[in-house]
Specification:
By secondary structure, the chain is of the alpha/beta class. A 9-stranded parallel sheet has the order 2-3-4-5-6-7-8-1-9. Helix 8 links the parallel strand 7 and strand 8. The radius of gyration is 17 Å and the shape is globular. The C terminus is likely disordered.
Length: 239
């Protein structure tokens, strides 16, 4: 099992403090969050270089291309005319991250938590097929709600890991486990610690089924450690 910390970093000072906290906790990765609006995310590359120079392994967190394009185009399908140019920029960014020694990148796609018109769903498939050109491993993160309408789409996209937020753990896990390909890891963003007790049985079942392909994410590392201990697993912690 792999554990990693979730949550947005709002300033460089907070980011540096978070890196140190993660290092002290023995985490394998630190998260570096893109704060700019569109690629090439120049400041992101600088922070990745800084973290790498300090000896950290890094997982950049960037907006997914579909959610970014949706926000730029305000949901207008005419905005899809910009998709190829945007994907060119993503290709360049992922190539640059690979040259900085990055192994994993997280692509956040909150758009997948809402119903999609066929044109946007098709564009999502095309985008992630295109983004296979680089050797980076990709974690597709769906945030902002439960993954319901686009569950089949998200599970089928050619990425190495899928991350979802847990709201109704038992129901959501049954649905995603039935569709998750055998090669793909599943990262679960846990609700706040007050609801941890209700997660024990669904997580145990998921762990028995997925083994090391089950990852857990939360803003609170203590919550992660407690759940890992409950699963009787000597887990590796990553950011």
């Amino acid at each position: 099992m792999l554990l990693h910390q979730s949550g947005q970093i709002t300033s460089p000072a907070q980011e540096s403090a978070c890196w140190q906290q993660q290092a002290e906790a023995g985490m394998a990765w630190v998260s570096v969050v893109a704060t700019e609006g569109i690629p090439p995310f120049g400041a992101l590359l600088g922070r990745v270089a800084s973290a790498r120079a300090s000896g950290f392994s890094v997982k950049p967190v960037i907006p997914g291309p579909l959610s970014l394009l949706w926000s730029i185009a305000a949901g207008d399908e005419a905005g899809l005319e910009q998709l190829d140019a945007l994907l060119d920029a993503y290709d360049d960014l992922l190539l640059a991250l690979g040259k900085h020694g990055v192994e994993w990148v997280e692509l956040d796609e909150p758009l997948l938590a809402r119903p999609l018109a066929p044109a946007w769903a098709a564009a999502c498939e095309r985008s992630y097929n295109r983004l296979q050109r680089t050797a980076l491993k990709r974690l597709l993160a769906v945030s902002g709600g439960a993954l319901i309408d686009n569950l089949g789409l998200a599970c089928s996209l050619p990425v190495d890991a899928l991350q979802i937020e847990l709201h109704d753990a038992e129901r959501e896990l049954v649905a995603v486990l039935d569709r998750l390909p055998a090669y793909k890891a599943l990262s679960l963003v846990l609700p706040d610690a007050d609801h941890s007790a209700a997660l024990a049985a669904p997580l145990q079942s998921a762990h028995q089924r997925l083994g090391p392909r089950l990852w857990l994410a939360a803003a609170d590392p203590d919550q992660l450690a407690e759940l890992a201990a409950g699963l009787n697993n000597s887990s590796r912690i990553a950011a």
